[in-house]
Every structure is written in structure tokens, then in C-alpha cells.
């Protein structure tokens, strides 16, 4: 099967935008908190801002059901064009939100509603784009292409980090609005390219009850949700949480953290293709196990690194977390797609990813910061990270049996076909 360059490019563009929007809000959180909440307690304001990340769970879940059904029944391209259009509109709206000084308590409410809408439309983008790209990629290149697709995610985060770096050096308070509007312009370009692309694969759909497919894949659903949750969590830990947490526990400033983020994201984007290639040599499940168990081992030492006032030591802690995240996540999309039949992929993968990334992943910043405030222990957030890392390792280990069983079934079917 030959991959369409235009199709791959459009998949990368949409994924870039989704992660730009997510990273922009996450990284802006320390700056937005005093604008949208009462400034009496800066830690409480930051906790409330971070709490908006997991609160998008309901909208993402509903969005994943809607776009999952659309992608499986009417085609991947139609679902992706619809989600990208909605995502661009809500990104523009984010830039027009009034602040606490302008409308009082209506400001955080408006921010929450905008995030809910953004979550709904983003639900079908990242996973749908991965399906769109990998279904048109040769099997021997899928691990590498999965890592490149994740690299486009990091590129979106890197762009958001760089734009935030410019914002932190700008005297204009309105500059944060321009960052959201810039994302909408990118969406228009991506939408034009996506509408011009061809959809080479259209799944064969059988008549079935809407929720029977979820019962059929209930064990796989939980497995993917746990893995997606940890994959989202490790990136949230290394970038989102660290941006707000480190300035609270040492003398490093927000502006210095933003600068470090940019360098770390460049490093992340460069090593993703490397581990995508290595997965073809050692096996994707083995590599994912190494990433999960490695994270559990280094979590506490990394948080002690964060308490240091040395930029070098803080950077070392974050680099270790980034490497662990890349090792685990480089081939996530291929791993997940191998567990689900083509005609059910959009629904199962989007919904499971929405549940895992929202319930486990985006809760990381909120729960971790709460653990620190409640206990006063610098490494308290690591306890949450260790728990979800071990759950992810268990999920990957159990999936190895499922994958082997499916490969045996395929071999039997091919053998039976050859004998006939």
C-alpha cells in the first residue's frame, strides 16, 4: 500500500493544531490564572486553572462518540474536516474571552465553556488523524510513521512554547489573544489541504447496535485507556505541570521555564523518530514496558531535581522524563490500532483515548499540585505518576497476549486461504 503524501501532510497539520491549542492553554495557565480568577491566593488560582484541563472530559467523551461514529460510517476525511472546522472556530473564540477584571465571575465561566467546546471538536482529531495516516502507510514503515506523527504533536507544543516565550517578553497584555488567533489561521490552511486530499481506504460497515462494539472491545478499551492516560500524563508532567510547579518551589522564574520548555521540545521532537526506528528492532511492546517502568523508577528523583535552584539540575530531571515519555509513546498509535479491527477503529480508539487522556492524563497537573499543597512534600506528585506508570506497564503486558493471539488467528486464516 502506497501512502498519499497529501493525506499524510493533512493528518500532521490537524494534529499539529490540536496540540498547539492544548499546549498553548496549558503553558499559558500560570499567566491566565491571575487574568481569569481572583488573585487572593496564586496557588489556588493556578489549581483552578489546571482543573479546567480534566473538566473537558465530558465534552471530549461526547465528541469522541460523535466523530468516532462519523469516521467509521461516513469516512475518515469527513470526520476530520468537521472536527478541524469546529476546532478553528473555538480557537478564535478563546482569543475574545473577557477577563476577571472586565466581567468578574463570568470570566472563568466563559473560559470553561470555551474549553468544553474545544475539547468536543478536538476529540476526533489526534486519533482520527493517526488512523487516517497509518491506514495509508506500508506496514514496514508504520512504527517510524507513528513516531513522526507524534513529532508533529511535539512541533505543535514547540510552536506554542516559542510563541509563549515571545509573549513573556512582550509588554502588551493583549498578546495572549494573538496566540489563539494565530492557531485559527493555521487551521484554515490545514482545512484547505485536507479537503483536497484523497481518502484511499473506506471501512466496510456492518449493521450493528451502537454500543455492542464497546462491549465487544471492553478489555481492549480499558487497556488503551490506561496506556493513553499514562502517555498523556508523562507529557503533562514534563511540560504543563513543570511550567507552573517549578517556579513555586524554587527561585527559577516563569520566563526561564518557558525558555527551557522550548529547548526540551526541540530535543523531544528530534529523538521521537529514533525511538520509532528502534521499536522495529526490539519490539514496540518491550520498548513501551521499558518506558513505563523507567518512569516509575525515576519519578521521585526527578521531583527532587525540580526543587533545585540550578537550571542544569532542573533540566536534567525534565530531560529524563521526556526520554521516558518518548520511549513509551513513540509507537503508541500503531500499537493501539493493531488491537482493533479497521471497521471499529475510529470509535474505539477515539473514545478510549478520550477517557484515558482526560481522566488520567490531564488530571496530572491538578492532582499533583493538590498533593504537594496537602502534604508539603516536594516529591508527593511522584506518587501519582508511579501508580499510573505501573498500571500502563500492566496494560501493555496484557496486550502482548492479545496481539499474539490475533497474529495466530491471521496466520491460520492465511494458511486456510492458501490451501483452498
TrEMBL record:
Span of domain Major facilitator superfamily (MFS) profile: 7-406
Location, primary (coarse class): membrane
UniProt-listed SUPFAM superfamilies: MFS general substrate transporter
Subcellular location: Cell membrane
Lineage, opening ranks: Bacteria, Pseudomonadati, Chlamydiota, Chlamydiia, Parachlamydiales
Chain ranges passing through the membrane: 43-67, 79-100, 112-134, 146-168, 174-196, 217-240, 260-278, 290-313, 319-336, 348-372, 378-397
Domain of life of the native organism: Bacteria
Organism: Candidatus Rhabdochlamydia oedothoracis
Protein topology in the membrane: Multi-pass membrane protein
Name the UniProt record assigns to this protein: Proline/betaine transporter
Pfam families, alphabetized: MFS_1
Keywords attached to this entry: Cell membrane, Membrane, Symport, Transmembrane, Transmembrane helix, Transport
Statement: the UniProt record of this protein carries the keyword Acyltransferase: no
UniProt-listed InterPro entries: H+-coupled_symporters (IPR051084), MFS (IPR011701), MFS_dom (IPR020846), MFS_trans_sf (IPR036259)
Amino acid at each position: 500500500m502506497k501512502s498519499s503524501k497529501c493525506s499524510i501532510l493533512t493528518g500532521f497539520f490537524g494534529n499539529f493544531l490540536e496540540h498547539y491549542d492544548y499546549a498553548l492553554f496549558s503553558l499559558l495557565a500560570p499567566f491566565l490564572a491571575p487574568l481569569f480568577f481572583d488573585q487572593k491566593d496564586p496557588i489556588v488560582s493556578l489549581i483552578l486553572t489546571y482543573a479546567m484541563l480534566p473538566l473537558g472530559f465530558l465534552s471530549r467523551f461526547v465528541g469522541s462518540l460523535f466523530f468516532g461514529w462519523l469516521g467509521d460510517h461516513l469516512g475518515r476525511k469527513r470526520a476530520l474536516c468537521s472536527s478541524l472546522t469546529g476546532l478553528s472556530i473555538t480557537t478564535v473564540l478563546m482569543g475574545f474571552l473577557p477577563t476577571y477584571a472586565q466581567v468578574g465571575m463570568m470570566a472563568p465561566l466563559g473560559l470553561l465553556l470555551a474549553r468544553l467546546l474545544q475539547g468536543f471538536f478536538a476529540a476526533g482529531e489526534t486519533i482520527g488523524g493517526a488512523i487516517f495516516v497509518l491506514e495509508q502507510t506500508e506496514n514496514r514503515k508504520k512504527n517510524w510513521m507513528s513516531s513522526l506523527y507524534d513529532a508533529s504533536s511535539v512541533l505543535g507544543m514547540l510552536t506554542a512554547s516559542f510563541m509563549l516565550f515571545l509573549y513573556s517578553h512582550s509588554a502588551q497584555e493583549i498578546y495572549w489573544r494573538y496566540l489563539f488567533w494565530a492557531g485559527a489561521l493555521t487551521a484554515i490552511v490545514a482545512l484547505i489541504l485536507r479537503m483536497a486530499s484523497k481518502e484511499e481506504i473506506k471501512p466496510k460497515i456492518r449493521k450493528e447496535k451502537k454500543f455492542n462494539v464497546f462491549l465487544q472491545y471492553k478489555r481492549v478499551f480499558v487497556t488503551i485507556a490506561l496506556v493513553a492516560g499514562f502517555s498523556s500524563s508523562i507529557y503533562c508532567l514534563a511540560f504543563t505541570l513543570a511550567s507552573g510547579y517549578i517556579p513555586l518551589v524554587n527561585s527559577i522564574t516563569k520566563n526561564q521555564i518557558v525558555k527551557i520548555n522550548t529547548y526540551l521540545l526541540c530535543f523531544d521532537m528530534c529523538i521521537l523518530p529514533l525511538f520509532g526506528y528502534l521499536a522495529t528492532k526490539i519490539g514496540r511492546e518491550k520498548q513501551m514496558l521499558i518506558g513505563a517502568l523507567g518512569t516509575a523508577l525515576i519519578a521521585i528523583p526527578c521531583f527532587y531535581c525540580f526543587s533545585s535552584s540550578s537550571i542544569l539540575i532542573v533540566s536534567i530531571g525534565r530531560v529524563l522524563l521526556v526520554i521516558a515519555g518518548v520511549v513509551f509513546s513513540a509507537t503508541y498509535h500503531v500499537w493501539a490500532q493493531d488491537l482493533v479491527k479497521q471497521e471499529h477503529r475510529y470509535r474505539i480508539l477515539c473514545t478510549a483515548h478520550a477517557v484515558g487522556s482526560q481522566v488520567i492524563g490531564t488530571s496530572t497537573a491538578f492532582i499533583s499540585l493538590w498533593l504537594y499543597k496537602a502534604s508539603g512534600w516536594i516529591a508527593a506528585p511522584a506518587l501519582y505518576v508511579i501508580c499510573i506508570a505501573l498500571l500502563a506497564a500492566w496494560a501493555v503486558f496484557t496486550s502482548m497476549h492479545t496481539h499474539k493471539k490475533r497474529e495466530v488467528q491471521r496466520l491460520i486464516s492465511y494458511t486456510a486461504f492458501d490451501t483452498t
